[in-house]
Each structure stands twice: as C-alpha cells, then as structure tokens.
Amino acid sequence: MAPKLAGSIATVAAACVEIAAVLRVAPIAGQTGLAGATNVQGEAQKELDVISNDIFIKHLRQNTDISILVSEELDEALHMQNQGAYAIACDPLDGSSNLDVNVTVGTIFSVLAVDPANPELLQAGTRQLAAGYAAYGPSTSLVLSFGKSVSVFTLDANGVFVLSADAVRVPAASGEYAINTARERFWDAATRAYVAENVAGETGPAGKRYNMRWIGSMVGDIHRILMRGGIFMYPLDSETAAKGGRLRLLYEANPMGLIIEAAGGAATTGRGRILEVPPQDIHQRIPVILGSADEVARVEAHYRAQG
Ligand code: AHM
Ligand code: MG
C-alpha cells in the first residue's frame, strides 16, 4: 500500500479515536446529541455530529496528503488548500438519533484519489481506494477494506487499534433481515414480496425461519451483517422516492458497498450494483440493499419480476 494512503487512513483512524473518547463520556458532559442540550454548567452544547465533524476537520487539516473533505455535515466540499492526492468522504457520526440511548453509532468513510488541481469528487464507488467505518459499541471497532478483503481492528486501552479479525467473510446465506418495517405502507412490490416470504418462514417459499433485527443505526446493523450474515435494506419507497432514497451514496452506500462486496457479499439498489452508480451530487441519496449474497439475489429477483 502506498505510504501516503496508509498515512491518510491513520489520520482518519486518529479522528475516530478522538470521537470514541468524546462519545464515551458524552452524557456526563451534557452532550446527548440532542439539539438545544446544555452541559452541567448550563452552557449550550453543540450536537455530537457537529463535534464529530469538527474533530474530523481538525485531524484532516494536519495531513497535507488529504486535500478535500466531503461530509454529511457540510453543504459544500471543504478544500484544504494543499496539493494532497486524496479526498475523504465521510459521515462523521451516523445514527446520531441513537446517541441519547447509548446504542452503537459510527463513523463511515471513503477514500478517493483526486487531482488537487482539478478534483473530481463525483466518482463511482468502484473507484474508491479504500473504505471503512468505526463502530462505537461495547468496544470500538475499525473496519477497513481496500476492496479485496476486510479487516477488523479493536481499540485497546492505550488508544491503539489492534487487528482482531482478518479476511472477514459475510456468510452467503442467513436467516436475519434488517428493514424499518414501520415503513411498510411506503414499500414497493419487490420489497413487500421479499419481506412477506421471510415472515412466512419455513412454510413459505424461502423455506426457512427468519428473524428481523433493526438497530436504526446503519453501522450497527452492517457490522452485525458483516460478522454473521444477513441483509440490510433501505429501499426506494414512495416517501423517499422524490429524494432518490434515504441514505447517501458517497459516504454511506459506497463505503459500505465496498466493504460488503470485499467480504463476499453483495450491494445493490435493487436494480443495479451500488458501486457502479455515477454520482450526480456529493449528497446524492440512493436505495441501499446489501449483505449476504443469497439474500440480496432474492431481492434482486423480485425487482426483475416487477419489471
Ligand atoms: P443519519 O445519517 O441522519 O444518522 O441517518 C442515517 C440512519 C442510518 O444509520 C439508519 O440505518 C437509518 O438512518 C435509520 O432510518 P429510520 O429512522 O428510518 O429507521
Ligand atoms: Mg448518516
């Protein structure tokens, strides 16, 4: 691996270590992540996703190999005014609606090669140099892929990420699916058909029993799927259709798609590979269906059947 790419990922990892430290004591500091929160001194607090974004900017500014930051928290791409050959696209704190209840949240990131003189950020996911996420749960995990395999590191007591699983594979078959079923009335026919088969269990066409798991925090749901299989779905539905979907292409769908594919799984919009979608906008949204290859293939078959 190019030393500058390794160094850029080390910079992102350092930002994640600092975010983990902030999150660990956030309720004591009055940083619940809710707008309008106050700390014990009665001072207004910034939301934790803004704090996490500031931490990212601070770390990235220290590495002149990184010239651009695209962040969910920034309307425009932030140009660092250096000649760095890399851009980082990130969601500094995904799943922040879970912060006040101490459920796993995460940081998602993607590394792109750019020409600093003429940077092109709207790159398809196949062009990502690397992607990863940090999961802030009972332990802090850093999951990293350069597109060929997936490694999991765990943050130790000294603030060092230690390799804890290598060449992770998503099991091809699974009996777990993750989707927000409260949105059923908005679903398209393909999503309805797939979920109905799962609910029917061993007596239905799927021929086996399923469980549903939905954390409402993409990093938490995807980490479970990476480690033991399953499928994550935030499909295009009648409510999100006007925006193109719920989740973001550059810093949610593409990095997670790269990781899941590198682990032997699949990532689709339902009608095509996520990583091949040409982005039109840095904050573009997209339907996301990813996880165990057999389950994703079943969903895609339902989309084909719908024409
Ligand atoms: P966010 O980037 O504003 O945190 O939103 C993304 C999150 C994902 O982590 C999660 O999968 C999804 O939104 C949950 O959506 P819902 O509230 O519809 O269950
Ligand atoms: Mg997000």
TrEMBL record:
Substrate binds at D94, G95, S96, S97, N180. Its main location: cytoplasm. CDD domains: FBPase. Residues 171-303 form the Fructose-1-6-bisphosphatase class 1 C-terminal domain. It comes from the Bacteria. Residues 11-164 form the Fructose-1-6-bisphosphatase class I N-terminal domain. GO terms for biological process: fructose 1,6-bisphosphate metabolic process; fructose 6-phosphate metabolic process; fructose metabolic process; gluconeogenesis; sucrose biosynthetic process. It is found in: Cytoplasm. Its cofactor is Mg(2+). Its EC number is 3.1.3.11. One of its GO terms (molecular function) is magnesium ion binding. Binds 2 magnesium ions per subunit. It catalyses: beta-D-fructose 1,6-bisphosphate + H2O = beta-D-fructose 6-phosphate + phosphate. PANTHER family: FRUCTOSE-1,6-BISPHOSPHATASE-RELATED, SEDOHEPTULOSE-1,7-BISPHOSPHATASE, CHLOROPLASTIC. NCBIfam families: PRK09293.1-3. HAMAP family: FBPase_class1. Homotetramer. This is Fructose-1,6-bisphosphatase class 1. It comes from Devosia limi DSM 17137. The gene is fbp.
